[in-house]
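Final report, closing paragraph on structural work. Over the funding period we assembled a curated collection of sequence-structure pairs, and we close with a single example.
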Amino acid sequence: MLNNEEKINVDIMQDASEIVRYDETGIPLYIQTGELSRYPDRKALCHWHDDLEFIRIVHGEMNYYINGKNLVLKEHDGIMVNTRQMHYGSSINQNDCSFLCILVHPALFSSNRLIYQKYLLPLLEDRETEFVYLDSGRPDHGFILDCLMEMTQLKEHGEYGYELEIIGLFYLIWRHLARQFKAGKTAAPGSEDMDTKVQKDMVSFIYQHYTEKLTLSAIAASGGVCRSKCCQIFKKYLCQSPIDFLNSYRLEVSSHFLKKTDKSITEIATECGFNHLSYYSELFMRHYGCTPRQFRSQHPADS
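Its predicted structure, as stored:
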């Protein structure tokens, strides 16, 4: 299980890609268990990465958003998210959910060029395959989900060479996925959906300029769309308005400052783009269920 709350933070680059901190430098694997209750407002930040992402729900259910599509991941089910997809998970009716999260970079399979080109690239380059829902009721998917659980247990036990077993399990998983995808199919790289590209541009703009006084017009302009279209895209892909998304990110950054620095709350609010301390405190209370000062006092080890 997670040892501290920092592990649930999603570190985001300015282009909205996630900085994946692998479990061991040089081995592109990340395996963790988590609960949505450890995230601000029980929702992760919207992001993408070059890694394949596997999720298995242990207890509860989770809303999962991928490029504007909303899925409900059921207990014991899971999902495989293809590379470079905009995605995030959130709670259903603020209920908690525990899950396994495993990231693996395709480079892990690239040592043999033929295997990589024959079995991985057809799926990785097929932009229409954004994800594969893993249904525990299906034997082939059940096998994959069991492998994800075994990987997590191998990491927790930490015996010498456990990474080799995990890599072996990934090859077995990919055999099942490749067969489902009809291995050997030639898939031409598809062009990125225009709305998805605009969404990435606008989210990246917010991550780069959140400290500034941003308006809806400025956010829309960063994507080359009108304000109405901007709102439509945020509603479709993120289920919230552009300004609500901006404030959520500002609050996430401010929580990091509260835990990691001794800056005053007023300084933090200002540096995160909030011009009025009262407004910042009101939003913080709404998202975290406590005041910034109370939040800081609850995380003395991180200060």
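Residues 1-10, 183-191 have pLDDT under 50 and may be disordered. DSSP finds ten helices and eight strands in the chain. We thank the funder for supporting this effort.
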